Protein 1
Amino acid sequence: MTTDAFLADCRARLAFDLFSNTWNAVVLWALRDGPRRPVELRERIGGISSKVLTETLRRLQFNGLIDRHAHQGAGTRVEYELTPVGRSLLVPIDAVGAWAFAYGDQVMAAQEAACAHGRPSPTR
Amino acid sequence: MTTDAFLADCRARLAFDLFSNTWNAVVLWALRDGPRRPVELRERIGGISSKVLTETLRRLQFNGLIDRHAHQGAGTRVEYELTPVGRSLLVPIDAVGAWAFAYGDQVMAAQEAACAHGRPSPTR
DNA sequence: CGGAATCCAGAAAGATACTG
DNA sequence: CAGTATCTTTCTGGATTCCG
């Protein structure tokens, strides 16, 4: 199918914007095995602050990718869960992961080679 | 294969970082049909400034995803071309595009529904 | 525990002008 | 045309603190 036209004002940009965020894909991935509480997510994911996690969850919720469930009881218990749409996004996320698995070494090698040739490292 | 562990310090993050940039994927996509000159890229892609395009190209080059060819002649003629590794990245990019094609409507609908319910729109 | 409120540093990206 | 140099604005993510 090939979905041409990522360019100009294309709808595919919508998906790219979802990825152009450090944590969106990571959090979705961390939710793949079922509902999770924020504290669990922070354990599974390394190095994400409470604030940033909350922001990310709001963002995903806003885009209809996750649902928030507040179970009432002693204290507070909240869980987040993938929606069907959110779950469907795991497919392309997995494709990205598979690529990294296959080609990550070559990218790192290219980075080191560029540095060795005195090229400054762009931010990313 | 499923490439578990996107979490903590995993190599898959390397790939996510490549995507967590507004323009990387778009520029790679614009190069899919063969070598392109910067001015051509700016035409195909909408709304990218010369400066940002250059930065993006340097970044992709640094990661070994594209090559730069400077043809000498009257004036200046430069072309950028995908490396084999860069071309391989089109596969996951295409998966993302296919997802957007299939589910983009639902995401946009969710956004509008959230707004209608008075939820503020997170940045992304 | 969940999460909201601040404050802050750094990075990304846009606009503009300029050089070869 | 390709690329650089500034300047400015916006965004992101991190740290800290406080409330229910």
Protein 2
Amino acid sequence: MIHQRECPIETVIHVLGGKWKPTILWNLVESTKRYSDLEKLIPDVSQKMLTQHLRDLEHEGVIQRTVYPTVPPKVEYSLSEYGRTLVPVAEMMCAWGEKHNERKQKEPAS
Amino acid sequence: MIHQRECPIETVIHVLGGKWKPTILWNLVESTKRYSDLEKLIPDVSQKMLTQHLRDLEHEGVIQRTVYPTVPPKVEYSLSEYGRTLVPVAEMMCAWGEKHNERKQKEPAS
DNA sequence: CAGTATCCCAATCGATACTG
DNA sequence: CAGTATCGATTGGGATACTG
């Protein structure tokens, strides 16, 4: 992947743009969650995508991964302080998205 | 494509998430542009993608397409009033994206 | 001028099976 | 419990050629 991002909007889309990334984010806003919690909270996500998205978000510094070296293993995911700076952006996107969805329902023709 | 959008963030990503869509949007914020203007302003976009993205944005109601039935044809694209409601959202995304890009440059390690 | 049409490659995502 | 590995289907995007 080329890491010249002319447009910073693409950066946000890159960070948030994965099928389950927004959902993961919302779930971690409330509180820290274990891997298995996220699996239950997001029933339709495959293990592959959940793991991949968690790794991506971790790499971007948005979430933190904490491993407890116990048997069986315990891994917790939480929003980092930095990740919380993304929340207002996500909320603004969410607000526009909601209005847009309503609008599209009202005018199927145009 | 399934049009159930559980998360409205995905809606925004769907509207703005195409390789050249943000760029197209920025170019239309200033003023109305002709198809050929956009081709010149965005040299790396292929005709296929430019046309496709313009159609997408038009379908979402973000831009307006005006055809002048002259020979040769003249087609103008402009941001709709509705499309302008998306600009503040895009700007907020842009601001976060810029900071994020700076951050990533500063800490290549972690 | 403003597009279409076609072919092809790369990335994304899902399903399934397996493991420290 | 928390993953990894592999395969295959779908989608996004680029290159080229052609048209009302």
